[in-house]
Structure formats: C-alpha cells, structure tokens
Amino acid sequence: MKPQDLPFFYTFESRRPLFEPPVLCIPPYFSDHDKYSSLCLESFERLEIEFCSGNGDWIVHRALSHPGIQFVAVEKLFKRVRKIWSKTVNHNVSNLLIVCGDAKDFMRHYVLDGSVDRYYMNFPDPWPKQRHAKHRLLTPEFIAGCRVKARGEALFTLVTDSHEVKEGSRALFENPALTQLDLASYGRSYFGDLWVSHGRTLYQVEARV
Fold first, then answer.
1. What is the largest CA-CA distance in the chain?
2. CA dist., res. 178 & res. 170, Å (int)
3. Residues 6 or more apart whose Cβ sits within 8 Å of residue 173
4. Along the 209 residues of the chain, how does pLDDT read in single tens digits?
5. Residues with Cβ < 8 Å from 126, sequence gap 6 or more?
6. Exposed (0-12), middle (13-18) or buried (19+): which is 119, by Cβ within 10 Å?
7. C-beta separation of 16 from 85 below 8 A
8. Which residues of 22-33 are buried (b: 16+ CB within 10 A; e: fewer)?
9. Which residues belong to the active site?
10. Where are the domains of the chain?
11. Is the bond preceding residue 140 a cis peptide, omega within 30 degrees?
C-alpha cells in the first residue's frame, strides 16, 4: 500500500472521531469527546506510546521487534500518518495503533488512567520563539497528564537535537538522566538520520513520571 491509498477521513463540517483500524482519527476543533468514549483504548498487558511519530520508521521497527507489546504512534500531521499507515500495513504490523490528532486530546480523552507503561517523545518541535510557546507539546501540564495515565512510575524517554529542549527538560522531570544518544542502539528514524547528517548532537533524556 502507498501512503496516498489512505483517504482523508472527513470534511471539516462532518468531523468526528473515527476508528478505521489501525488508525484512530481525532479531529481538531472538536469538543464532544465524551460522546465517543467507546473509542477509548482498552487495557493492555503492556502499553507504550510514542509522541511525535513523524514518518513512523522508529515505532514500526520497535513494534515489529516487540510483538508482545501494544504500541501507539501519535502524529498530528495527516501526511505523516499516511506514511506510518503504509509501513504498518505493508509490514503486517498487528500491535500498532496510529493516532492522527493532537496528543493532548488523545491523552485526556482516549487513554485510561493508570494504563501506560512507557512513553517516548522523539524530536518534538521546539517552537523556540516565545510567541509560539502555546504550540509546545512538552509542558508541565502535559507531563502531569502523562503521570495520571501511567501505570506505576512509567519511564519517559525524550530524544532531541535541541539544546533548549534538553535543558528545559530539567524543569519538567524529577532527576532526569541526560546523555548523548546512541542512535544505533536506540533505533533509527527520519529525523535522527537527518540531524546526524547535519552534524548535530542528539540527546536522550530519561525520567520516571
């Protein structure tokens, strides 16, 4: 299957949450999420969520390597969701749910409290200018929400090429472990390869939430 084989799910006027396996689509500018509680994730033996999944290279490979774990790829841009979907279908990945939508809406309305075992956030957009701060996903409020959804103390792994994001994580997590990322052992991705080719240093931040 090619990425363009996945059609768009709705018009703006008809927008509503839809589940067309393996894609859960959560539309923007929508408020009646409570009417779609049937779309909430069920409880899994182990559940791991990646935010900012991009083209899906990293999460698809991880799902293939760990068939006993249920994974979720959360990506806001539909053109990227199409690429994740194509890889998922072509590789017959059965343990990956793709969420097309805002991560905050997904976590708040479609994830059960105390159900997530691990989080990953790979190369989030740093939105460095203050006037764009409202677009940042990595905020104290978002991390607090992840804590509510975590099963016990879930490990949160952040990967970034941004020095500002790395340093800002100190205020978000308690006792974070900051290291230089070993891309070979962590797993390759589009943005990981891109920033390495540009000579940038990649950082890994890990903390319990």
1. 48
2. 9
3. 143, 156, 205, 207, 208, 209
4. 888 888 877 666 778 999 999 999 999 989 999 999 889 898 899 999 999 999 999 999 999 999 999 999 999 999 999 999 999 999 999 999 999 999 999 999 999 999 999 999 999 987 665 665 676 899 999 999 999 999 999 999 999 999 999 999 888 999 999 999 998 899 999 999 999 999 999 999 999 99
5. 136, 160, 162, 164, 165
6. buried
7. no
8. bbbbbbeeeeeb
9. 125
10. 45-127+136-208
11. no
Q: Are the beta carbons of 91 and 130 closer than 8 angstroms?
A: no
The residue assigned the tokens 């340093």 is 167
Is 196 in contact with 162 (CB distance < 8 Å)? no
Q: Which CATH class is domain 45-127+136-208?
A: alpha beta
Q: Which of 51, 42, 173 is nearest to 115 (CA)?
A: 42
pTM of the model: 0.93
